[in-house]
Write a structure and sequence with these properties.
Radius of gyration: 18 Å
Helix content: 10-25%
CATH class of the domain at 100-238: Alpha Beta
CATH superfamily of the domain at 100-238: Oxidoreductase, molybdopterin-binding domain
Largest sheet: 5 strands, mixed
Number of helices: 5
Low-confidence stretches: 1-11, 17-54, 56-79
CATH topology of the domain at 100-238: Sulfite Oxidase, Chain A, domain 2
Region (Disordered): 1-28
Oligomer: single chain
InterPro entries: OxRdtase_Mopterin-bd_dom (IPR000572), OxRdtase_Mopterin-bd_sf (IPR036374), TAT_signal (IPR006311)
Distance between the termini: 41 Å
Strand content: 15-25%
Mean pLDDT: 79
Protein name: Oxidoreductase molybdopterin-binding domain-containing protein
Domain Oxidoreductase molybdopterin-binding: 89-235
Pfam families: Oxidored_molyb
Strand order of the largest sheet: 2-1-10-5-6
Length: 258
């Protein structure tokens, strides 16, 4: 392969992207020297001290944000996160312009600002993160609002059976059954690793489904729609299991995360 040509790599992250069902945009080329230089930095991170490793992860997150080809997701990262997206770019949201809507089969549709979400009771949990592609990040703290609390605020109707999630990348979606969504270990997360969620990690708000493979934890969350039935998400339409329990789905036998 000519490394100066565009590359189209599709694989779930770190939850991939996030959004509605529009086709993803094609990436722009990455030059040979840029790619080889980044590859060298990735290899260095495998044997680096923890401080350097954290810096490498921050660099890869920033690089991935400017790399629509997904090549940065192929780099070694010393057991840390990989950064994937299913779109060529993702708009940035902050406290001024972020909104999370809850609609569908509810009595009281809701719209939350980032300040609204921060003002609600927060739940913190520390779990391993397991990607369906094989990498794992142990003992990762997440903090946010239990999804069940937001559903109760909206008043879920008796006919409801599932919840669909859309994201502001304009491409990614996910779904859970209503029973799954009401679990105590499912969060609308605002913080990860005891820091506000960065853009690369799906900030300012993402879904976190602790006991499932990380593609269920949709990044850049913008919409929660209560539905009658489960609607397959972005990766389920491409062959991944809808019920994505770690170690009990997708043909994998990983240790459970919770």
């Amino acid at each position: 392969m000519n490394s100066d040509e565009p590359v189209n790599t599709e694989r779930p992250e770190e939850s991939g992207g996030t959004g509605t069902d529009q086709p993803e945009a094609r990436g722009t080329p990455v030059g040979r020297r840029v790619f080889l230089g980044t590859l060298g930095l990735g290899a260095l991170g495998v044997v680096a001290a923890p401080t350097l490793q954290r810096g490498l992860e921050a660099f890869l997150g920033s690089a991935a944000d400017k790399d629509p080809t997904g090549l940065t997701g192929l780099l070694p990262n010393g057991g840390g996160f990989r950064y994937y997206s299913v779109t060529s770019s993702v708009p940035r949201k902050n406290a001024e312009n972020y909104r999370l809507t809850i609609d569908g089969l509810v009595d009281r549709p809701q719209t939350f600002t980032l300040a609204d979400l921060r003002a609600l009771p927060q739940t913190r949990m520390v779990k391993d993160v397991q990607c369906v592609t094989g990498w794992r990040v142990p003992d990762t703290p997440f903090e946010g609002v239990r999804l069940s609390r937001l559903l109760d605020a909206a008043g879920v109707r008796p006919s409801a059976g599932a919840v669909r999630f859309t994201c502001f990348d304009g491409a990614y979606s996910e779904s859970l059954t209503l029973d799954q969504a009401r679990r105590a270990d499912v969060l609308v997360a605002l913080r990860m690793q005891d820091k506000d969620l960065s853009h690369s990690h799906g900030g300012p708000v993402r879904l976190y489904v602790a006991p499932m493979y990380f593609y269920k934890s949709a990044k850049w969350l913008s919409g929660i729609t209560v539905t009658e039935d489960v609607k397959p998400g972005y990766w389920e339409k491409r062959g991944y299991d809808i019920d994505a329990w770690v170690g009990r789905s997708n043909g994998r036998d990983d240790e459970p995360t919770s």
